[in-house]
Specification:
2 domains, six-stranded parallel sheet, DNA polymerase, domain 1, alpha/beta, 6 strands, Rossmann fold
């Protein structure tokens, strides 16, 4: 099935920003005298800010209020955002879909200011572009709410849409929303979320999207 709409995750899928998010987290923790866990990346990739904060508060002894912690993280992120690069081939796929008239939306667990900064770096922000951020929904991924909102914004039946994700949380959300969930991780994975389709190459991704 060629999807009638495509919904993109942002961090790690459209833009190679996961290392910067992790570096920002580590920098803030170290500035507070807290040693980041060795498995920090695996524990936070694709996860919204509040659950990450709660993990650090409950397990690592983070004392800062949420608003102070996220401000420090985002200050670091925004200082370095201009250095980010798109994921290889992702923006080209996005533009090819746009050129053929396929509705698209960016659906992210990040705050809107991060999503909009990333879109500017990618050069794909334009008037009327549809996006769903963590600020727009009650529940972030792995809950299906963000993707269902994207389907509502684009006016397409969820069953006729496709999700592109690099994280387990995101792919799980896409499956729960009743969408075709393409799981396109940057690194080898131990398991694929139930119902998701593992995509191992850019050519395979393009094939699933009807782009040849």
């Amino acid at each position: 099935m060629t999807p009638k709409a495509v919904y993109w995750d942002m961090d790690g899928t459209l833009i190679d920003s996961e290392p910067l998010h992790e570096r920002a987290l580590r920098t803030v923790l170290l500035s507070l005298g807290i040693t980041p866990p060795v498995d920090l990346h695996d524990r936070v990739v694709g996860v919204a800010a509040m659950p990450v904060y709660e993990m650090m508060r409950d397990e690592l002894g983070l004392k800062l209020p949420f608003d102070d912690w996220i401000l420090r993280k985002y200050v670091y992120y925004m200082e370095h955002v201009a250095s980010l690069k798109p994921r290889d081939g992702a923006v080209e796929v996005y533009r090819d879909l746009w050129a053929q008239g396929t509705p698209q939306a960016v659906v992210s667990n990040s705050d809107r200011l991060i999503v909009e900064a990333n879109l500017r770096v990618l050069g794909i922000d334009r008037p009327g572009m549809k996006s769903v951020t963590r600020n727009d929904v009650r529940n972030g991924k792995p809950d299906p709410e963000p993707f269902l909102r994207a389907a509502w914004l684009t006016g397409v039946d969820p069953a006729e849409t496709c999700v592109i994700e690099d994280s387990h949380a995101g792919a799980t959300a896409g499956v729960a929303a009743g969408m075709k969930a393409l799981f396109w991780p940057q690194q080898p994975v131990d398991y694929v979320p139930s119902g998701a389709i593992l995509v191992s190459s850019l050519a395979e991704l393009r094939s699933h999207l009807g782009l040849y």
